[in-house]
Amino acid sequence: MASRRLALNLAQGLRGRSGGLSVPVRRGLATPHSPALKTQTTTLKNGLTVASQYSPYAQTSTVGMWIDAGSRAETDETNGTAHFLEHLAFKGTSKRTQQQLELEIENMGAHLNAYTSRENTVYFARALNEDVPQCVDILQDILQNSKLEESAIERERDVILRESEEVEKQLEEVVFDHLHATAYQQQPLGRTILGPRENIRDITRTELTNYIKNNYTADRMVLVGAGGVPHEQLVEMADKYFAGLPSKSPESAAYLLSKKKADFIGSDVRIRDDTIPTANIAIAVEGVSWNDPDYFTALVTQAIVGNYDKALGNAPHQGSKLSGIVHKNDLATSYMSFSTSYSDTGLWGIYMVTDNLANVDDLVHFSLREWTRLCGSVTPAEVERAKAQLKASILLSLDGTSAVAEDIGRQIVNTGRRMSPGEIERVIDAITEKDVMEFANKKIWDQDIAISAVGSIEGLFDYARIRADMSRNF
User: Fold this and answer.
1) Are 320 and 306 in contact (CB under 8 A)?
2) Cα–Cα distance, 241 to 95 (Å, whole number)
3) 339: which strand partners?
4) What span, in angstroms and rounded, lies between the C-alpha atoms of 304 and 337?
5) Cα–Cα distance between 86 and 61 in angstroms, integer?
6) Sign (positive/negative) of CA torsion 73, 76, 78, 84?
7) Which H helix or E strand runs over 177?
8) Cβ neighbours of residue 8 under 8 Å, at least 6 residues apart?
9) Which residues contact 107 (CB under 8 A, 6 or more apart)?
10) Are 369 and 349 in contact (CB under 8 A)?
11) Which residue intervals define the domain Peptidase M16 N-terminal in the entry (predicted)?
12) Could you tell me whether strands 334-341 and 346-354 are parallel, antiparallel, or unpaired per DSSP bridges?
């Protein structure tokens, strides 16, 4: 938007009343490019981190609070509380009723939103630069002064139960929830974000207020800004609105358990339902954490395995060796390789969907054979292709102030610092085929796997047979 507006202003400045150019325009000498935009960080006295990337020509901004607390910070009894709170945040505060809150946002033309993950909760707003102070005031109000009225709790209880029903119809969500549940059995990371239905029905106001008291503390929160809001201005707003936040989380049993390293467990969970016309299967090894030195190597290795979608026009030419085998033999409708990271662990694997139910074992076999090939036979060409795809994906994902704010918040909450796009590009460029093979030998070769399968999965071999495919010498 900023560049479009700038171009419009320049065009108007050069044109006379007749609509033509008023003076001849000569191209001058090239001028140095403005320095790369930097991420600035400041820590307040109470421990709250303020991080921003100021773009002087941007006319809009995104501001938000990234919190190091999600479903992992809950207990079995309170699982679903973080997501429940996200719903209640916009239902009124001690200063604003729900109607006043909605009208205030509407009158600014702003957007206010929130989401919950296993390790983070995020509240953010997008608005014109001049409305940023008002947005920060609203954010602090819903974070510190939400009324959490019993009537609102009961209304949202029904909404979340319906949301849970919708999620249960999305097979990919179901498979990945079960994958976490089996890979991290009896551990906080294995719980779902929405929580079990019985918890949603039973969550009380006391549990909600306790979650805020135990987790919404300055040492676990980052106020992020991206766009046309100067860093110094954001720091002033943070000092004005968030100086009263408690400095440190109480070390409750739930907090200590959430910070204990998760143990990956080789295991499987299968839900056979022959009324579902497809087999939906996820297989994963233990991946890498956000801070792992192999974080980007894991992403490059994942990109080598690649993705495949039979419905796309370029399905026969999607680059990876596995996609060629899958397409030639019609083994899958689609597959997606993934590398999911958390603070101390991760899941690296593949999610497959197929309606060729007679050849489910072949699909799994060729996928794992591709994994073991990575341990000893990777070409420079496929590494370069994977690196180019990864760099493009990362840079394209940073389009817009909300995407930049998301990147800043996620990195600082999870790693303590933000790597610039240029720094990330240099790290990826330095990865070689040798690095990929070393990663594969360390993380894939003869390693335990977690399997989650839903649908028409009669043709899926037993765990021991699949596990044996993790050390094939071809």
Assistant:
1) yes
2) 14
3) 348
4) 9
5) 22
6) positive
7) helix 171-183
8) none
9) none
10) no
11) 50-197
12) antiparallel
Q: What is the DSSP string of 432-459?
A: -HHHHHHHHHHHTTT---EEEEEES-TT
Cα distance between the two ends of the chain: 52
Decide if 251 contacts 292 (C-beta within 8 A): no
Amino acid at position 76, single letter: D
Chain-centroid distance, C-alpha 212? 22
Q: Which residues are catalytic?
A: 86
List C-alpha distances in Å: 157 to 167, 177, 178, 194, 342. Answer: 15, 21, 23, 11, 29
The first and second tokens of residue 223, run together, are 């106020």
User: Which DSSP helix (H) or strand (E) runs through 12?
Assistant: helix 2-14
Token pair for 367:
């996928």
The 3-state DSSP class for residue 47 equals coil
- Chain-centroid distance, C-alpha 226: 18
Q: Mean pLDDT per segment of 10 residues, for the chain of length 474 residues?
A: 36 34 36 63 96 95 96 94 94 94 95 95 96 97 94 95 95 97 96 96 94 94 96 97 91 85 96 97 97 97 94 75 92 96 97 96 96 94 95 92 96 94 95 97 97 97 94 74
Distance separating alpha carbons of residues 192 and 176, to the nearest angstrom:
10
DSSP letter string over 369-390?
HHHHHTTT---HHHHHHHHHHH
- For residue 322, the 8-state DSSP code is H
What whole-number distance in Å separates Cα of residue 390 and Cα of residue 315? 19
pLDDT confidence of residue 24: 35
Query: 430-451 b/e with 16+ CB inside 10 Å = b?
Result: ebbbebbbebbeebbbebebbb
User: Two tokens at 341?
Assistant: 């990271």
What's the rounded Cα separation, in Å, for the pair 255 and 316? 49
Strand arrangement of the beta sheet that strand 60-67 belongs to? 39-43, 49-54, 221-227, 60-67, 121-128, 111-116
Round to whole Å and give the CA distance between 187 and 166. 25
Q: Which two tokens stand for residue 286?
A: 């233990």
- For 122, the token pair is 């995020």
172 alpha carbon, distance to own chain's centre? 16
Give the DSSP H or E segment for 315.
none
Nearest to 413 by CA among 72, 58, 77: 72
274 phi/psi in degrees, rounded to 5: -75, -5
Nearest to 453 by CA among 262, 339, 284: 284
Which amino acid belongs to residue 120? N
Whether residue 337 contacts residue 437, with contact meaning beta carbons closer than 8 Å, is answered with: no
Contacts of 165 (CB under 8 A, 6+ apart): none
Say if residues 269 and 178 touch (Cβ distance below 8 Å): yes
Q: Which residue has the tokens 């009961």?
A: 154
Alpha carbon distance 257, 427 (integer Å): 33
